[in-house]
Design a protein that fits this description.
Elements (H helix, E strand, L loop, with lengths): L3 E4 H31 L7 H25 L1 E4 L15 E6 L5 E7 L10 E3 L3 H6 L7 E6 L2 E11 L2
Parallel strand pairs: 1-2, 4-5
Antiparallel strand pairs: 3-4, 3-7, 6-7
Amino acid sequence: MTKYPMTVQGAKALEEEHAHLTKVERPRLSQAIGEARELGDLKENAEYHAAREEQGMVEARVRDIEGRLQNAVIIDVTTIPHTGKVIFGTTVEIANVETDESVTYQIVGEDEADIKLGKISVGSPIARALIAKEEGDVVAVKTPGGVIEYEIVEVRHV
């Protein structure tokens, strides 16, 4: 079985999505299927087929979430002593060596990644380059535009 690293916040978000799907969406879709069935001939009943298709997608997502949570390794970075080393879950401020432009990312599991929120997947090129490095280290990140060097300015456990 594949283990999925996940932050506490990521696990909570998946649990909330699971609860919404099972407590809100399942009953709504069940009712929609029942109402569509009452309309008569199921062969040409677009409402029925649309509701059944949506039900299938919801059930697939529920199974996916259950599998991920069952195989999750939940890491609470706030309980890990601060060493200045980049590990899963840490928030890292890096500065482009050439431009001195800085950016901050939190390294999270693939389900949690959202670049707009500053969360990058542990499997991303930047995260892979940063993991196990320390504050003050310079890392080279291969990008489509070439190699970019970043200095690790600060590592936070938040």
